[in-house]
Amino acid sequence: MASPHEPKGSARFARQTQPDSISQRTRNSALPRLTSKNGREFDANTFLATIGEGRKTIRFPKNQAIFAQGDPGDAIFYLQTGKVRLTVVSETGKEATIGLLSDGSFFGEGALAGQPLRMGSATAMTDCVVLRIEKKTMVDTLRREHALSDLFVAYLLARSIKSEEDLVDQLFNSSEKRLARALLMLAHFGKDGIPESVVPKISQETLAEMVGTTRSRVNFFMNRFRKLGFIDYAGSANGELKVHSSLLNVVLHH
C-alpha cells in the first residue's frame, strides 16, 4: 500500500493515455443521453469515456496506487475498465478493505462533500483505465447537465443501498453465508447483463476483512466451497477464482 505522503510525481503514478485505449464495452454502456439546460444534447457516456477540459484518462497497472490516504481530495474518479480496491488504515496501522469496485464505478466522491484529504486509499487490483475529473469540473457539470447528475445520484443511491445490505449481512448472517455473498458479488452474479464468473486474484486476508472473520475461517469455507464444486481454480495461471452459480445455494438455502 502506498504511503499517504508519497509524492504525486513519483514513477509509481501512471502516464496519461488517449481515449482510444478505452474498451468498447465502456463506450457502449447504457448511460443516458438527454438535452442539457442550454438546449444542446449532452451524452453522459461520451463525457465519462473521453478526455476534455478538467478530465483525463490514466492507465494504472495492477497493484499501483491511484490515490493514498491523506492525499488532497481535489478530484473524483470514474473506473472505465478494471477493478479497484478501497482500503483505510487506522491510527494503529491496521488496514481494512472497505470496497471492491468494477467497471462503471465512481470513487473518491468524498472530495465533492468537502473532504480536503482522502479518508482512504484506492489501488488497482487489475490493469485499470480511470477517468480523473477535477473537482470544479465535476461540480460545474453536475449543476449544468441533468443526464450526468441523474446518473451520479443513481450510483450514490445504489452504493448506499449496498452499504445497508452489507450491514444487515454482517449483523444477521453467518460468516459462511457472508463469504458466499461476497464472492457472488465479486463475480457480478445478479447484475444486469452476462455475469462474470471469474474473480481476479484476491487474498484470503482481504476476503476475511470484507466478511468480518478470520483468515483461517475463510480458508476453511473456501476449501468446503471447492470440494462442493461451488468454486475452483482450474485453468487459472494468475490465481483467478472461478465462481459457479451453484454457490447461490449457500446464500439462499443455508
Overview of this protein structure:
The chain has 254 residues and is α+β, with helices and mostly antiparallel strands. It folds into 2 domains: 148 residues, Jelly Rolls (Sandwich); 81 residues, Arc Repressor Mutant, subunit A (Orthogonal Bundle), CATH 1.10.10.10. The chain contains 8 helices and 14 strands. A hairpin with an 8-residue loop joins strand 13 and strand 14. Helix 3 packs across helix 4 and helix 6 crosses helix 7. The chain is globular and about 55 Å long.
Question: Which CATH first-tier class of the largest domain would you pick?
Answer: Mainly Beta
Structural class: alpha+beta
- How many helices? 8
How many angstroms separate the termini? 36 Å
Short précis:
The protein is α+β, with helices and mostly antiparallel strands and 254 residues long.
